[in-house]
Design goal:
By secondary structure, this protein is of the alpha+beta class. Helices cover 39% and strands 25% of the residues. It has one domain. It is built from two helices and three strands. Strand 2 and strand 3 form a beta hairpin.
Length: 80
């Protein structure tokens, strides 16, 4: 892990297209501004972990489980 010290207004660059800047410091909290292309996902760590868990659970879904969902979806469309 690389550890850097930055002051208010200073930043770091990751590759050519991601910039992270310190935009505010209040007590023991630091606010970071992140400039990145839309193609680069940027999430808080806890959100990234939740997405990863949800994706793993979805990957474990058996095709047979999806058959019931398909039936319910078709029934819902018929009632429209």
């Amino acid at each position: 892990m690389l550890i850097l010290t930055r002051k208010l207004g200073e930043g770091i660059r990751i590759n050519d297209d991601v910039v992270v800047k310190v935009v505010d410091i209040r007590g023991n909290q630091v606010r970071l501004g992140i400039a990145a292309p839309r193609s680069v996902p940027v999430h808080r760590e806890e959100v990234h972990e939740m997405i990863t868990q949800q994706n793993a659970m979805a990957a474990e879904t058996a095709p047979a489980d999806l058959d019931g969902v398909a039936v319910l979806w078709q029934q819902g469309r018929k009632s429209e």
